[in-house]
Structures are given as structure tokens and as C-alpha cells.
Amino acid sequence: METFPLTEPVFLVLLSLAEQPRHGYSILKDVESMSGGRVLLSTGTLYGALQRLLGAGWIERVQEDDTPRDRRTYRLTPRGRRNLQMEIERMRQLTRVAALRMARKEA
Amino acid sequence: MVAFTLYRWLFRVYPVSYREEFGEEMASVFRDAQSELPPELVAKLSFYGREFSGLLWGALRARVDRLFGPATSYGRRDMCTQPRFRRSTVMLMLVMFAGVVLAMATAISVAGGTLKAVWPSLAAVLVFLLLSICAAVAAVLGILRMLRRSGVHRLEKVRVASKGDGSGGLLL
Fold first, then answer.
1. What is the pLDDT of residues A8-28, one digit of tens each?
2. Full-prediction pTM beyond 0.80?
3. What count of CB pairs under 8 Å joins A to B?
4. Does A1 reach chain B within 8 Å, measured CB to CB?
5. Which of A59, A103, A107, B35 is the most buried (most CB within 10 A)?
């Protein structure tokens, strides 16, 4: 079951995988970089989110025979990409309304 | 090395199936992150506080999911950047509860009167003390983080406008 809005860490994890498939540590560093060092995920939080996203079918493991067990790669599924797109659209609409309201207040 | 050993040891609180699926990956990611830690003590404390509290919280979550079924929501109540303090509080309460249970067990052992009976409880008390320190560090970091988010540090930049400048209030 999917509910919106997504939390910031989950949103950033999905956004990180939207660009390219990544392994755990790469996701961790990318989330930190995207948020300007504001969102620092612990391994427990990251893998809790990955487990739930795997279970919901939003992400999947990339099947590679030569990948060691401690370096498995994840990527977005079409369903995950669709949901991420919906969330981005929701945020876009929200910021549009916010900008309008702020402009009105200033005027 | 000690931190990694403690990490592996704490990881045992996760369900077996979870450990088999993610154990090696999580340990590997922890080691990678640890190897890139800056030398500052604050950064290290922050990292270990975050990792150990995240680990315990994740384990609790995995256990609850296992008991009541997987989480059905990704809403803000599940994971957000704010509840670090609340997580620390929950962890602290759990540790305190464990402490009370251990204290009762120790008292019963002491009443028995033999050192042999007391020893296992002493080991447990040492573990409890270690966990308490971790929880205290996590709580302090959580409080500092919340204060920073509240914008209290910006009060230093507040200056009072003079009567003549027409603004009639505080300027930031």
C-alpha cells in the first residue's frame, strides 16, 4: 500500500535510484550529497527503507552473477518510478501554490 | 575495530531472516562509512550515535513488522528526519526498563549469597552500562539537533531597531 507524501529519506533514496542503479553505500553518500549534508541515514534506517521498498515492489535488486553478497545493487522498478513521478508532481504543485501565496502577500 | 565488533554484536537483535538477507551488506556499508570518518571527535560520536540508535530502532521495527505484518505506509510517521530525539527517548526508556529488570535480577542473585550466582548479572550490567552511554550520547545529539532546527542559535543575530528607523521592531 502506498501513501503520500513520502518522507524525505524515502524520497531521497528513490531519487538516488532514479538516476542509476546503486549499492547501499553509494545511496548513503548520494542522499547526503543531495540534501547538502542535512539528511544522514544510518545503515539501520537505510536498509529498513530498502526492505520495505523491496517488499512493496518499488525497487528491485539487479541480478548480477559476479556481484558479491555485500555489494548488491538496487534499482527502481517501473512502479517505483511512477510513484516517484507522482510525488514530484505533488511537490511541484505545492511549491507553485506556495509561490503564488507568497507573491500575493508581498503585493 | 571495537565499534565494528559492537555493531556486529548488536546486529544479533534483528530477526534471523533479516540478518541473512541484509547482514553482510549492512556490515560492509558500516565499514565503508567508518573508514571515511573525519578525525574530529564530534563527527565520530555523531556517526556512532546515529548508527547504533538506527540499528536498534531498525531492529525494533523489523521485530514489530514480523509480529504484525510488514508496514503498510511510507507516511511521515514512519520515517522522517525529525524524530531522532523521539527515537532516542524510546531507546532510553527501553534501556531503563532493561536496567530495572537487571537490577531486580541482581538483587535476587545477591540475596542468594554466592558470587557465582551474581557474575552473569554483572556481565549483563556492564552491557547495560554500555548501552546507557550510547543512549545518552544519542539523546544529547538529538537535543542539540532539535535546538539547531528550532533556530535558537539565530537569536544571536537579532538586533533591536532604534525608534527613529521607522521599523519599530526586531530586525533579523
1. 889 999 999 999 999 999 999
2. no
3. 93
4. yes
5. A59
Identify the residue with better confidence: A89 or B169: A89
**B108 vs B110: CA distance, rounded Å:** 6
Residue length of chain B: 172
| Contact status, residue A46 vs residue A39, Cβ threshold 8 Å | no
**Residue A23, domain extent:** 8-106
A49 grid coordinates: 527503507
Q: What does the pLDDT read at residue A31?
A: 94
- Under an 8 A CB cutoff, do A71 and B53 touch? no
Tell me how far apart the terminal alpha carbons of chain B are, to the nearest angstrom: 47
DSSP-based helix, strand, coil % in chain B, nearest 5: 80, 0, 20
Domain boundaries, given as residue ranges, for chain B = 1-67, 83-152
Any domain includes A72: yes
Tell whether A3 is covered by a domain: no
Residue A83 lies in a domain: yes
| pLDDT digit string, tens, across residues B75-111 | 444 444 444 456 666 777 777 777 777 777 777 766 6
Report yes or no on A36 lying in a domain.
yes
Count the domains in chain A.
Answer: 1
The answer to whether the CB atoms of B25 and A70 lie below 8 A apart is: yes
Range list of β-strands (E), chain B: 159-160, 170-171
What CATH number corresponds to the domain at position A86? 1.10.10.10
| Structure letter (DSSP) for residue B97 | H
Instruction: Say how far apart CA B113 and CA B119 lie, in whole Å.
Output: 11
- Closest CB to A10: pick one of B22, B54, B74: B74
